[in-house]
User: Fold this.
Amino acid sequence: ISELPDPLGKVLAQWQRPNGLQIERISVPLGVIGIIYESRPNVTADAAGLCLKSGNAVILRGGSESFNSNRAIYRCLRVGLEKAGMNPAVVQLVPTTDRAAVGYLLSSMGEYLDVVVPRGGKNLIKRVREEARVPVIGHLEGICHVYLHESADLEMAKNISLNAKMRRTGICGAAETLLVDRAAAQRLLPEVGAELAAAGCEIRGDDAVQEILPTAVTATEADWSTEYLDAVISVRVVENLAEAAEHIRHYGSGHTECIVADDQAAADQFLRQVDSAILLHNASTQFADGGEFGMGAEIGIATGRIHARGPVGAEQLTSYKYVVRGSGQTRP
Assistant:
């Protein structure tokens, strides 16, 4: 994070009006960011570092499971800030595991917070969205798809499908649904299915999938919109790219989608047509990560369309202001 370019004070755009006014759009901090997260104490260091890099103050509220680790990391951060000649108060840690503190942070601190970023399970993020009195950056679910186009290379299809699902099943970038073109289902599914099954993944498929993979469990309507976060994947045969895109639009969460295809025109169409925060061509959905994007770290993946979208790093924790330079102009 420390080696990233400074995201502040950047001239994002500039132009001159006919009346001589010079206008610039310049990046600035968001202000005070509240970050509510569960379990992993590394978020304490990552979030504080990203907020400091982007010129923001931060209030951290970690989970009870890692409370002592969070406090230890927080103390180290304060020592480092003091040694650097910075005000240690720019990083704060909520000093209690009481769940009521989250409610107070969300509903009664709008005067002090500019934005809230939740990082954790579905219930936490849902609660933050419902109770927050300030804007929220984040995502509710990671229902990610891998689409095997009829032009997909078999070895690549196997490798990407296996990695996207099984590398780490419990992260938001794990694939939950596999879509396969009907024209390539007989060629691709037997070996892709065998790779997944050998790795311990349960396959839930539609009728067409079960004809090819007899051991597949029958998929229900609910499976297409389920974030398993486990060694389970739903598999559907689709007629073409348009049907795959429609399935993703209907059942997806706008997080991350991948197309495996040798046909560049088809890949380009998928990348244009599908409206999710992260789209990949011939690469695993598990690359949906700020560190893998070269951002140093991230404090989550945003799936909204306002402000940040995709991995939220230091640059995404900035806003902008307009600076207008004149030479005495008055408006007629």
